[in-house]
Design a protein that fits this description.
With 114 residues, the protein is α/β, with parallel strands linked by helices. It contains five helices and five strands; from the N terminus they run E-H-E-H-E-H-E-H-E-H. Strands 1-5-4-2-3 form a five-stranded parallel beta sheet. Helix 2 links the parallel strand 2 and strand 3. The longest helix has 12 residues. It is globular, with a radius of gyration of 13 Å.
């Protein structure tokens, strides 16, 4: 998955990646109420405040560090913060979704902006 900044991915690029059916782990760091409004299939919800207590679970979302871990939220702020936390904890191949669900919804009919 090519990207300009090694720690982020654009919504259009991520949408194309999803269409390719390549392996990816998706970490949604929004709150449960937000997750219920709209979500990506096969994403795992771990709200921001619970991330640091669930690092082993997050690592288990992918079978290899070769598989990208894409972190998303509503608009990209919380996910950027968590991407930095994960990278500081030794995770690799972690990408923040620029613009979050709201930006991705422009490319994915199954999502709605809110």
């Amino acid at each position: 998955m090519a990207n300009n900044n090694k720690d982020e991915i654009s919504a259009s690029e991520f949408s194309k990646f999803l269409d390719s059916n390549s392996p990816v782990a998706i970490l949604d760091v929004r709150e449960r109420e937000e997750f219920e409004l709209t979500r990506l299939e096969n994403s795992t919800l771990i709200p921001v405040m619970e991330v640091e207590d669930n690092l082993e679970l997050i690592q288990s979302l992918r079978t290899s560090d070769e598989i990208p871990l894409v972190v998303l939220c509503r608009s990209g702020g919380r996910s950027m913060q968590i991407t930095e936390v994960l990278l500081s904890q030794g995770f690799t191949n972690v990408l923040n979704l620029i613009g979050g669900i709201n930006e991705l919804s422009k490319f994915r009919d199954e999502l709605k902006a809110y």
